[in-house]
């Protein structure tokens, strides 16, 4: 509840600290979504090394990505509804504790089965944390600040794209893939400390959590359905290619681990610029234009990667590196604009539900895309990954034109 105004001359003086404090709380909550987002991106460049350690094929080890994203997408709405009567702060503490512990378990796993179980636990914990963090952040600010607070928390899931992939490559290649899980567990511990110290004890004690009927009401809106369909197609294409960047670079450019790490860092830098510039362009030119241009650039970059497989490594180097930069930039320039459209698609009170549905749709697409990419890679037609990913971006663009 907002404090009463102090008097006619004081509203602006008291509103600013209150809003700033609430947005700071959203920042503490975003520490958790940042840890979760980083974990989801980190192991992609390490799949070949993990496959060698377990004596398995890369497509088989990629099931770690497929299962994590699928379980997160399916469990998130269920666990959120089941925990609706609980204090939100306690739910977030429990979820982040479980997530941190699961990463420690993964770091200590000596078998693929143990690692798979740890990833399942991470997915359930992440699926519980993310929508509850968004709901709490949206409830603790004034209506005029709700979109900004939700963007801060949701951005924690996407901004790690600029860090997770290169960090996973550098740390994993230098110290082994288990070190990546230790790094994420450390992030989880920092996030847990942020919640304990930065989120008021009674925050969200009586917060209303959208039930199944309310969620279905939001899903039933044609505008939301179309936006979620664009998100689904975008995420399927993105994750059809994303987890398999290391085997692609090794096959097409004959890159070893050090050059793969450098290329992945280049992708991460482009993604960081894309996230930042995408938000700025959204404010200046509107979300629809940003989304459409991003999808076209993404399509072209994926099809360039597909075409480059027909070239010898010296000739393929330039087009591949250019495509990697455009891919990294455009794939995340899309996201701030898409979030802005979801926040504005319905009533302000529906924004947390819309973003929660978007998260589930996002990870469902990641699961479908990574499964499709694994199947294409397993067939030996590595050129097909870029072709399929580009086709998904094209269909998303065509659908976007009808919005």
TrEMBL record:
Respond yes or no to whether keyword Transmembrane is given for this record: yes
Query: From what superkingdom does this record's organism come?
Result: Bacteria
Which GO cellular component term is one of those annotated?
Answer: plasma membrane
Localization recorded for this chain is: Cell membrane
Chief location category? membrane
Keywords, A to Z?
A: Cell membrane, Membrane, Transmembrane, Transmembrane helix
* PROSITE patterns attached to this UniProt entry: MFS (PS50850)
Q: Which PANTHER family match?
A: PURINE EFFLUX PUMP PBUE (PTHR43124)
**Protein name (database record):** Transmembrane arabinose efflux transmembrane protein
């Amino acid at each position: 509840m907002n404090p009463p105004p102090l008097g006619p001359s004081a509203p602006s003086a008291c509103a600013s600290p209150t809003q700033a404090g609430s947005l700071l709380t959203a920042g503490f909550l975003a520490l958790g979504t940042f840890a979760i987002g980083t974990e989801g991106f980190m192991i992609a460049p390490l799949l070949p090394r993990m496959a060698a350690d377990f004596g398995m094929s890369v497509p088989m080890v990629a099931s770690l990505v497929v299962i994590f994203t699928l379980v997160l997408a399916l469990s998130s709405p269920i666990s959120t509804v089941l925990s609706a009567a609980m204090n939100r702060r306690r739910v977030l503490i429990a979820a982040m504790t479980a997530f941190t512990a699961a990463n420690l378990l993964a770091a200590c796993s000596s078998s693929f089965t143990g690692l798979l179980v740890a990833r399942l636990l991470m997915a359930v914990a992440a699926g519980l944390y993310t929508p509850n963090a968004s709901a709490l952040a949206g409830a603790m600010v004034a209506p005029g600040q709700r979109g900004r607070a939700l963007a801060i928390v949701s951005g924690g899931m996407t901004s790690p794209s600029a860090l997770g992939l290169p960090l996973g490559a550098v740390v994993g290649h230098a110290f082994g893939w288990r070190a990546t899980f230790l790094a994420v567990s450390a992030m989880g511990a920092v996030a847990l400390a942020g919640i304990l110290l930065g989120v008021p004890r009674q925050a969200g004690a009586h917060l209303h959590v959208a039930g199944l009927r309310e969620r279905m009401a939001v899903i039933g809106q044609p505008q939301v359905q179309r936006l979620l369909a664009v998100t689904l197609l975008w995420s399927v294409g993105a994750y059809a290619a994303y987890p398999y960047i290391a085997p692609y670079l090794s096959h097409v450019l004959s890159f070893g681990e050090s050059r793969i790490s450098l290329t992945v860092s280049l992708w991460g830098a482009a993604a960081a610029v894309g996230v930042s510039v995408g938000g700025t362009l959204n404010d200046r030119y509107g979300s629809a234009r940003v989304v459409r241009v991003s999808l076209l650039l993404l399509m072209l970059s994926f099809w360039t990667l597909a075409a480059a497989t027909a070239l010898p490594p010296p000739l393929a180097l330039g087009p591949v590196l250019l495509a990697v930069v455009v891919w990294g930039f455009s794939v995340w320039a899309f996201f701030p604009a898409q979030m802005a459209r979801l926040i504005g698609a319905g009533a302000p009170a529906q924004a947390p539900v819309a973003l929660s549905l978007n998260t589930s749709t996002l990870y469902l697409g990641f699961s479908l895309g990574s499964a499709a990419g694994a199947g294409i890679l397993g067939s030996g037609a590595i050129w097909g990954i870029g072709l399929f990913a580009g086709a998904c971006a094209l269909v998303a663009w065509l659908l976007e034109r009808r919005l």
